[in-house]
């Protein structure tokens, strides 16, 4: 199919099911929550295929132009022999009603390609992470996880990648800087496209923009996709900071942050299910500015800045904005119509830093926060010398708790200071009541999360469920 015949806001799921009549991929929620629509895409990285499980229901079809694609109908051999992931599901009785099964199989296929096909084993944690974006309404998780953990015992089946890589390399030069779906591959081309089309919808992973299409029924006549821009597809390391490109997916971004601060790793795993973390980007999450986005409270606590770029008077210009000054209202920011959020700049840890990052949600995995709190402290000789606190779910924007910080700085880090800080943070915000939590609950949780930070930072070892396990 010619990509030029596909509307820019046509989802991959609709293209597969309605246009191509490939119905192995199912529609469950059309919101990226249930995983029934999961497919696997791959692109070339250093001459090899890099496989990702993604939600096709919220992914623009044109965003995978130039990538390889697998659906549940593509795994069995022509003679009907099942792929090892399908055979494992069959042997472990991993399917009940069967509606979710194609999505689970595709998440397992991506897991298989990342691990078993590379000579690695699958353990329980890896299996749970790979399946974190898939819901089974029949509650058949135990045999499905068992199927995942049994993959290492199956005969290894490899994909002949060379012809696929060769075909993708021929398509790699297919840059589009005009039309309804723009896909520049270099930063100057992106900035010029943005300057020429400030009304176009800018997307990265589209994990939120896809919802605007499927749930909000919003039409997007023109889209600028920044995920192919080479300069924005890397993490740059400097002595004092790291710079995370706007096209880096959430999984890679959290891994880069966790390299300096290991406590971020479990927090990142709770951000969303695996397919969302593989598709969505940190830059997109920040630019979108949702008050319940989990990355912003953490980044605010870390003192992050954003780099905004534009093409003006024939050249690229940029400015740095502290993230806690970036938001001006509900989903509003200082980003000008001709600007692109290009990098998120995060300082490296200073000596003596302590960090806690907490998320409260109804589900442990793949759920939106009711409250998110991140606390960065520097304590010397029992006194707090510096503090930065970011909060989410408690205001119209991701927020910095400056009054609570003031109640902490210069004080002895003890029960009395904690009590004053808890009172301050419960009074600093006036959160809304909604389907996730009441205003009173959110205020109380803020105070209790601050207590958790005190307990952890003063040496208590069994505060988290992971520690008890």
What is the topology?
Blueprint (H helix, E strand, L loop, with lengths): L11 H8 L18 E8 L2 E8 L12 E3 L13 H8 L9 H14 L9 H7 L10 H9 L11 H11 L9 E2 L4 H10 L4 E3 L5 H6 L8 E3 L9 E3 L3 E5 L4 H11 L3 H6 L4 H6 L2 H7 L6 H7 L3 E8 L2 E8 L4 E3 L2 E2 L6 E8 L5 E8 L10 E10 L2 E10 L6 E2 L1 H7 L6 H14 L10 H19 L7 H4 L1
Parallel strand pairs: 4-6, 5-6
Antiparallel strand pairs: 1-2, 1-3, 7-8, 8-13, 9-10, 9-13, 11-12, 14-15, 15-16, 16-17
Describe what you observe in this structure.
By secondary structure, this protein is of the alpha+beta class. The chain folds into three domains: 1-174, Ubiquitin-like (UB roll), CATH 3.10.20; 175-349, Uridine Diphospho-n-acetylenolpyruvylglucosamine Reductase, domain 3; 350-469, CO dehydrogenase flavoprotein, C-terminal domain (Enolase-like, domain 1, 2-Layer Sandwich), CATH 3.30.390. The protein is built from 17 helices and 17 strands. The chain has helices at 12-19, 84-91, 101-114, 124-130, 141-149, 161-171, 187-196, 209-214, 250-260, 264-269, 274-279, 282-288, 295-301, 402-408, 415-428, 439-457, 465-468, and strands at residues 38-45, 48-55, 68-70, 181-182, 201-203, 223-225, 235-237, 241-245, 305-312, 315-322, 327-329, 332-333, 340-347, 353-360, 371-380, 383-392, 399-400. The chain has a five-stranded antiparallel beta sheet with strand order 7-8-13-9-10. Strand 5, helix 8 and strand 6 (223-225) form a beta-alpha-beta unit. Helix 2 (84-91) packs across helix 5 (141-149) and helix 14 (402-408) runs antiparallel to helix 15 (415-428). The chain is globular and about 70 Å long.
């Amino acid at each position: 199919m010619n990509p030029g015949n596909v509307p820019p806001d046509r989802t991959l799921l609709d293209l597969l099911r309605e246009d191509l009549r490939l119905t192995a991929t199912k529609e469950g929620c059309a919101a990226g929550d249930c995983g029934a629509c999961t497919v696997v895409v791959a692109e070339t990285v250093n001459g090899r295929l890099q496989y990702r499980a993604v939600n096709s229901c919220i992914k623009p079809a044109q965003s995978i132009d130039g990538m390889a694609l697998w659906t549940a109908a593509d795994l069995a051999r022509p003679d009907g022999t099942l792929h090892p992931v399908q055979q494992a599901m069959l042997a472990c009785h991993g399917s009940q009603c069967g509606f979710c099964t194609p999505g689970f199989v595709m998440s397992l296929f991506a897991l298989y390609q990342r691990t078993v096909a590379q000579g690695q084993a699958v353990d329980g944690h890896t299996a749970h992470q790979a399946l974190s974006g898939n819901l089974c309404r029949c509650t058949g998780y135990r045999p499905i996880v068992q199927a995942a953990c049994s993959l290492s015992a199956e005969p290894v089946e490899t994909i002949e990648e060379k012809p696929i890589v060769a075909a993708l390399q021929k398509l790699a030069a297919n840059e589009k800087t005009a039309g309804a779906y723009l896909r520049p591959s270099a930063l100057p081309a992106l900035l010029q496209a943005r300057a020429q089309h400030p009304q176009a919808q800018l997307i990265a992973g589209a994990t939120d923009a896809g919802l605007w299409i499927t749930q909000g029924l919003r039409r997007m006549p023109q889209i600028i996709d920044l995920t192919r821009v080479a300069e924005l597809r890397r993490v740059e390391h400097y002595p004092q900071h790291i710079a995370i490109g706007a096209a880096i997916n959430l999984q890679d971004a959290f891994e880069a942050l966790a390299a300096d601060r290991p406590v971020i790793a479990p927090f990142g795993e709770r951000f969303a299910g695996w397919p969302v973390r593989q598709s969505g980007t940190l830059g997109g999450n920040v630019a979108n500015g949702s008050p319940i986005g989990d990355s912003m409270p953490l980044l605010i606590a870390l003192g992050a800045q954003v780099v905004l770029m534009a093409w003006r008077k024939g050249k690229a210009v940029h400015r740095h904005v502290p993230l806690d000054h970036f938001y001006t209202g509900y989903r509003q920011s200082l980003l000008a119509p001709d600007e692109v959020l290009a990098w998120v700049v995060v300082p490296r840890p200073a000596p003596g830093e302590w960090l806690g990052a907490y998320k409260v949600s109804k589900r442990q995995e793949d759920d939106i926060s009711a409250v998110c709190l991140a606390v960065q402290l520097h304590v010397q000789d029992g006194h707090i010398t510096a503090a930065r606190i970011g909060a989410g779910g408690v205001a119209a924007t991701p927020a910095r708790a400056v009054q609570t910080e003031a109640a902490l700085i210069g004080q002895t880090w003890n029960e009395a200071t904690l009590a004053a800080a808890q009172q301050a943070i419960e009074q600093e915000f006036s959160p809304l009541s909604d389907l996730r939590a009441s205003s009173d609950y959110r205020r109380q949780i803020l105070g209790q999360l601050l207590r958790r930070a005190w307990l952890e930072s003063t040496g208590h070892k069994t505060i988290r469920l992971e520690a008890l396990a």
